[in-house]
Amino acid sequence: MKTFFRKLVYHNIPENTPIRYRKNCILSNKLALFFLILSFFIYLTTQITTLIGFSEQAGATLNGIFCLLYFISFYINRKGKFQLGKPILIITANLHATLNFLSFGNEVRINWLFLTLFILPLLLYTSNEKREILIFSLIPLIFWGIAEEYLKYNEPFIKMNSEQINFWFWVNTILIFILLWGAFYNFFISTHEAEELFEKEKERSENLLLNILPLPIAEKLKKGEKVIAEHYENTTVLFSDIVGFTQFSANIPPRELVMVLNDLFSEFDDLTKKHKVEKIKTIGDAYMVAGGIPGEDPNHAKNIILFAIDMKKALEKWQKKKNINLGLRIGVHSGDLIAGIIGKNKFIYDIWGDTVNTASRMESHGENGKIHLSSSTYELLKDEFDFIPRGMINVKGKGELNTYFLKV
User: Fold this and answer.
1) CATH superfamily of 225-406
2) Do the Cβ atoms of 394 and 312 come closer than 8 Å?
């Protein structure tokens, strides 16, 4: 039954409809269905009470006509024409209340229905539809005023005895309380859902931002800083490149290639958290990380080397699992650099400086399966790890440099 009701009220509302319009369309369907059922119930009630001489046939006929009008409104909504269905619903409800008021008079409290009709447009329209809200909020005031003035000088259309008046007095009183409670309940639920949605979207945005940027940088961005650049004296940068990847990528479908690369790099991502180093970016099959940023870390070089060792282990394990034969070339250099974000669109946390360039050269001048590092990193770690001197090598753009391989 619940599923059937949901199908009725959610029918023909496109999934891409903005949420503020979507909830109004759903409410319009609910109200049209509610008034349709209510009118039909009153129609049946008046028909039965007419048979036993307790009501007038005119009351049954009147509610039967409006039952049909509510069905038309509901049908138009189901066709997705909400901009037409909502006005028909509002005008029908106002005419229904007015004619019932003129038919039965003040004694049965039908005039109180105009209060609920006065706030109805606030529930059916958004803040961008102020004109519709104003117009459809004035209609019940006008209709009520005209009917009230008419009844000052004329008798109601339908004559009722005291028992009939008492019966319909309580029916209308209960109905008014239901409508008012429903209106405020809908407002309460909508507000609560909006707050929950806002919190979820905020949390999602926060997580997305922190997935792209380090926490201190994200906090600065939220405070309104547009250009963020900081100098770090003591850092270590690592570049890695998958050996044989170009040939490997030429022999598998693009989608499978991306999935394979994602699987491996996801393991590297987990290692950055383990060793407290900052992933900077990936460029094709190259993976770049730095230690000592965005917060200073006296163990920046050690953490990077431990990360590099685990990278090699992760690749070996991954190759056995996937039955893929690839290598890994790693280059490391320590020094100062600039870190920050620039630009307006698709910005990332990036690093610049000679340290970055030298680390890149250590990778490109390294060897498959080895961790190649500069003398600056060697000096920081010579008492903690074993190294194999490589000697002086000619490095593009840097000249002669004394470098080392980590002995693993």
Assistant:
1) Nucleotide cyclase, GGDEF domain (3.30.70.1230)
2) no
